[in-house]
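Troubleshooting log. The previous structure file for this entry was overwritten by mistake, so regenerating from the original sequence record. Sequence copied from the archived sheet and checked twice against the printout by T.R.
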Amino acid sequence: MALCHLTLVQSNRAKIIKLGAVGTLLGLLKDPAVAVQVVLVMVNLAACTEGRSALLVANAVECLVGMLRIGNESGSMECLVPEPSLSVGRERWGRLVWRRRSE
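Regenerated output below.
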């Protein structure tokens, strides 16, 4: 939860992104015990351009759509939260989501 609060500040988001934490966060999504907190951090990261770019490069959309497809009860609805933030000004986001849905 502390990481969630830290990512509310832009300078902290930039540092977290530069340290490469996005991949680690995506890996933590598989753990139901922390999935909700990880999604909250991802929402905060998606609030800035650098965060959206880092999440897209790390295939966050595919990971979130995959969680929705699996139907993981602890994180399925929470996966819907960061997706609109990732889509802001991004055609690539829409293509990724539609490609994953059609599979």
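The CA atoms of residues 62 and 99 lie 9 Å apart. Archived copy saved in two places this time.
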